[in-house]
Each structure stands twice: as structure tokens, then as C-alpha cells.
Write a structure and sequence with these properties.
By secondary structure, the protein is mainly α. It has 12 helices and no strands.
Length: about 350
């Protein structure tokens, strides 16, 4: 029989070694150096951005911007301090320092949960700086809201405590103003505080805002639900606070002491620069001016408060030149001198995760 034209393929015998698993990792040779690349999470940069370190510098940058914008006020205020009586200036500085203590008492009185005293006082000092760098009330409110949240107070209760603080501070300021107006009815010519013909537009504007707010609550169900829930939490927190006499005393005592100390500081500066206006009348002028500019959305009232205070002191019977000098010196003591250490404290609290 003839052999086949194509030889049959020779089969190798089966290997003794078992085949590797499907997902088994490959072994590298011992003479090859492996390069290991850093693991980069998806959606994040390879190097972590130091967010807190950057936030620590933001207050100082804002202070520098505010100082450049109001350099004329700073120059005039420091110039007036050279001719002032230093004992009265020290009294004004002491009253300013006590305002932070009064604010700390009011903040603690607005919440049932005890807050750490040292950090609470430092937060009020930092909140004062934030309040002068951001629109009125927003800076201090944000700092204190964050502080209470870090301290373990739920967000709903923290918001309710913040609203209770604002309400108590407004009632205290208006109550002091009403008491001084009743005691000294002829101390202030109220007609000079508002430009001619501005009362009717202001009243119409307030009425329009009330109508718009009422319509929004009536038509938007989600907004109505949120506002109702917030009011329920706020009323519950206020009821809990007032069941404790110590908390109620801290809340209302601090809310009265805070504007009284601010007004006392202005009166002390007026005495230092020999403004021919009685101290009680200067305090009345301060309260009237701050109530008048309460709704002006400027950082810490910078600019608007100075103008209102000058007009109020002139309405109280002070000469225009001396009244301007008193206001500039007062704002330097209460705003500009504490601004840099307050900004540094704010940055330190952010870095230490207190806020």
C-alpha cells in the first residue's frame, strides 16, 4: 500500500504543568524594574487643594480691599484720635470689647444646648469681622450658624436660634430707642433724619414687599411648607429657651446690653472730642441711626452708618465738623482697629475646624 501524499501532523504529548487561571496575575521577571504610578481618584486633582488654608487668607484679603476702598475714612479717623482725650477713648474701647461678651450671652441664651464658652466668645469676635466684610448680618449669621452646627446643634435648631437672636436684638434695640425717646422727646429732630418727601416712598415700598411676601406664601406651596416648618421649629426652640430662667436672662439681658454698649461707646468718643451734645442724646442719635440703616445691604453698614450717624448727631444739636470727627473716630475704634485681629481669629477658627 502506497504511503499518503501528505504526512499526518505529529501531536505533542500533554504538558505536565497545569494551565494558569484566567484572571491570574502575571509574574514579572526579577531583572525588570516595575514602575508604580500614584492612584488618582476619578474626578479629583492629583494634588489636594488646601481649601482650609486658602479660606484662612480670604478674610485678610477682604480687609485689605475694604481698607483701600475706605482709606479716606481711615486717615480722617486716625487723625481725629490724635487730639482726643485718651481716658474717654479707653472707655469707648472697653465698651466695644464688652459688646462681644454681650453677643456671646445672647447667642447662648438663644439655644438650649450649652456651648463652649471660650470658643463662643472667640466666635463672636470673629463674627464681628465677618459682619463688616459681608452684607449686614450675613457674615455674623453664617459664622454662628456654622459654629452651632459644629457644636452638635442640629441645623433646624441652629437656624431657629439664629432667628431668635435676631428677633431679640431687634426688640432690644427698638425698646431702648423707644425708652430714650420717651425720656428725651426733644433730644432729636426726627424730621432731619430722612430727606424731604422720602417717607411716603418708604412706606409704599414696605407695603409692596409685604404684599409680595404674602402672595408668594399663598401661591407657592413648597415655600409655604418650608416657612411653616421653620416657624414651628423656631417657636418650639423659643418655648424651650424660656422654660429655663438662665437662658431667658442671657437672651434678653444680652440683647439689651449689646446696643446699649454700642451707644455708650459713641457717647464716650463724643466726650473725648468734646462734642457739645449730652451723652444720652448721643446714645439716642446712635440708636436712631442704626435702626434707620438696618435694611441697607452694605458690608457692615460701611458708608451708610457713617452718613446716618453724622446726620443723627447734627439732628441732636452737634456742629457738623465735630459730629463728623466723632463718627470717624468711633468707626475706627469699633470697626477698623478690631478688623485685622478679628480676621486673623476667623482664619484660625476655620483652620482649627471650630467653624
Amino acid at each position: 500500500m502506497a504511503p499518503p501524499s501528505h504526512p499526518l501532523p505529529v501531536r505533542k504529548p500533554p504538558s505536565v504543568l497545569a494551565p494558569p487561571a484566567v484572571d491570574a496575575a502575571r509574574r514579572t521577571s526579577s531583572d525588570v524594574t516595575a514602575l508604580r504610578f500614584p492612584d488618582v481618584p476619578r474626578g479629583r486633582l492629583p494634588r489636594r487643594v488646601p481649601v482650609r488654608q486658602v479660606l484662612c487668607l480670604v478674610p485678610l484679603v477682604l480687609v485689605a480691599v475694604a481698607a483701600v476702598r475706605h482709606r479716606s475714612v481711615l486717615a480722617g479717623g486716625f487723625g481725629q484720635l490724635r487730639t482726643a482725650s485718651w481716658p474717654w477713648l479707653l472707655a469707648a474701647a472697653g465698651a466695644t470689647c464688652l459688646t462681644w461678651v454681650a453677643a456671646a450671652f445672647t447667642r447662648q441664651g438663644a439655644v438650649v444646648q450649652p456651648l463652649p464658652k471660650g470658643r463662643l466668645l472667640a466666635t463672636q469676635f470673629a463674627a464681628g469681622a465677618a459682619n463688616h466684610l459681608l452684607p449686614t448680618g450675613l457674615g455674623a449669621g453664617a459664622v454662628n450658624l456654622r459654629f452651632m452646627t459644629v457644636c452638635g446643634v442640629p441645623l433646624a435648631r441652629s437656624s431657629a436660634a439664629l432667628a431668635l437672636y435676631l428677633l431679640a436684638e431687634s426688640v432690644g434695640r427698638l425698646g431702648l430707642l423707644a425708652a430714650l425717646l420717651a425720656a428725651f422727646p426733644d433730644a432729636l429732630r426726627l424730621g432731619t433724619l430722612l430727606p424731604d418727601g422720602s417717607a411716603v416712598p418708604l412706606l409704599l415700598g414696605a407695603a409692596v414687599l409685604l404684599v409680595v411676601a404674602a402672595a408668594a406664601l399663598a401661591l407657592v406651596r413648597r415655600l409655604r411648607t418650608a416657612v411653616t416648618g421653620f416657624l414651628r421649629d423656631a417657636l418650639g426652640e423659643a418655648r424651650s429657651v424660656h422654660t429655663r430662667p438662665a437662658r431667658a436672662l442671657a437672651l434678653w439681658g444680652g440683647s439689651l446690653a449689646f446696643p446699649a454698649l454700642q451707644a455708650a461707646g459713641l457717647a464716650a468718643v463724643g466726650q473725648a472730642l468734646r462734642l457739645p451734645v449730652p451723652p444720652a442724646h448721643m446714645a439716642l442719635a446712635y440708636l436712631a441711626a442704626t435702626v434707620a440703616v438696618a435694611l441697607v445691604p452694605t458690608p457692615g453698614g460701611l458708608g451708610s452708618v457713617e452718613a446716618a450717624l453724622i446726620v443723627a448727631l447734627i439732628a441732636a444739636g452737634g456742629p457738623a465738623a465735630v459730629a463728623t470727627a466723632v463718627v470717624l473716630a468711633y468707626r475706627v475704634i469699633t470697626v477698623w482697629v478690631p478688623l485685622v485681629p478679628g480676621a486673623l481669629t476667623l482664619g484660625a477658627l476655620v483652620r482649627l475646624k471650630v467653624i
